[in-house]
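>> Question from a student workshop board

For tomorrow's exercise we were told to take the sequence and the ligand below, predict the bound structure, and bring the output to class. My setup keeps failing. Could a helper post the expected result so I can at least see what it should look like? The ligand is guanosine-5'-diphosphate.
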Amino acid sequence: GEAWEATDEAAAAAEAGEQAAVTPVVAVVGRPNVGKSSLVNRVLGRREAVVEDVPGVTRDRVAYDASWLGRPFTLVDTGGWETDAEGMAASVARQAEYAAQAADVVLFVVDATVGVTDADAAVTRVLRSTRRPVVLAANKVDGAAQEAEAMELWNLGVGEPIAVSALHGRGTGDLLDAVAAHFPDREEEAGERASGEEGPRRIALLGRPNVGKSSLLNRLAGEDRVVVDPTAGTTRDAVDELIELGGITWKFIDTAGIRRRFRRLQGADYYATVRTSSALERAEVAVVLMDVSEPLAEQDIRVVEQVMESGRAMVLAFNKWDTLDEDRRYYLEKEIDRQLSRVSWAPRVNISARTGRHMEKLVPAIETGLASWDARIPTGRLNSWLKELVAATPPPVRGGRQPKILFATQADVRPPHFVLFTTGFLEDNYRRFIERRLREDFGFEGSPIKVSMRIRE
Ligand code: GDP
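>> Workshop helper replied:
Here is what the output should look like for this input. Compare the format with yours to find the bug.
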């Protein structure tokens, strides 16, 4: 209905303007044969990048997960970006321009034994015009003999040349120190459960009044096994319960709000919304309960929307399945198709708190949602996937220009958040297309995912 579309548009608008926080991106630029790929391999400490530094060689992978002194960053090998037949110097300069657009730090590699070439000079001009920090690597300094040659690269005017040997590893520590000095201040590490987040995983049991929340809670808990855990939550009288299911202890958030009856009083609507959002804030996954004995209500949809906005994992539980007849079942499926199509990624369980039907399916569904919520796709895998996708279906031309997607990283988990580094604005339709394909190919069942872009003008 209307509400869905309005929310969708608002979210898209908010996302379009957003500059996502990501791990720092370091792009390696330089003309062919200076040793870019060897240096990338050296930094990665493995032999994964294609070493052959030949123009026009298409590489499968352009971006890698790397780290220096415990600080993660994305290392981008720009070697594969040159595609036009406009001459080597020009295409290397173009490549450097893209790199500077997308990266936080540019690692400019020059062959010290050859000295400054036309292509190096062209790259230098491009890099000077950007305000991106540049670290200059004077490569192939395998011994003291080449040190003087390295110092001649001061003449480029992009700062101190750092003498390295990608082949032997000489000087790469100093080089990475220089690169890391330009990283933005370290933020909370993405992907780890923050301190104080250890312990049982946290479930919010949600749904409008009378859908069967307290019946389900009672059935799951079997009263005697319940441990009441008073929590200093945002809701004054929030009470969490630890319940063991399938051999694992789970924390059910704000069960006081479920077990009490006052929520059903007139005017409790606003109160319920506030309570739901404060429970969601502390939860990792939401089980949204719906009552199949009645048509899906606006209030049910509102709860689902609240979960979507919270970015939490979600399981849809259709309760009172014992009341269902053929007729009602037919209409229920129609209602679900019509009103819940935007959360078709959420696992669905058809249960009865009264009879205990399919109780055993609840925990696996919750675990699926949490696993998706936590999931991280390695940068290399993500980019080989993206490369194929974009080759088959390039972004539409906009204002006479075709935006290029340079590479992507997964910036965050809980929920998974992907950032596309682009040279121009991607239409919402195209972003949604990528989101859909991410789901088709990687799953993420039970978790929302987010796709945003980072444009460098
Ligand atoms: P809450 O407001 O969401 O906590 O809902 P309650 O657990 O209080 O349940 C509301 C009503 O639905 C009560 O009369 C329950 O007995 C009934 N109920 C709950 N679960 C089921 C079920 O699976 N089948 C049937 N037939 N009734 C149920």
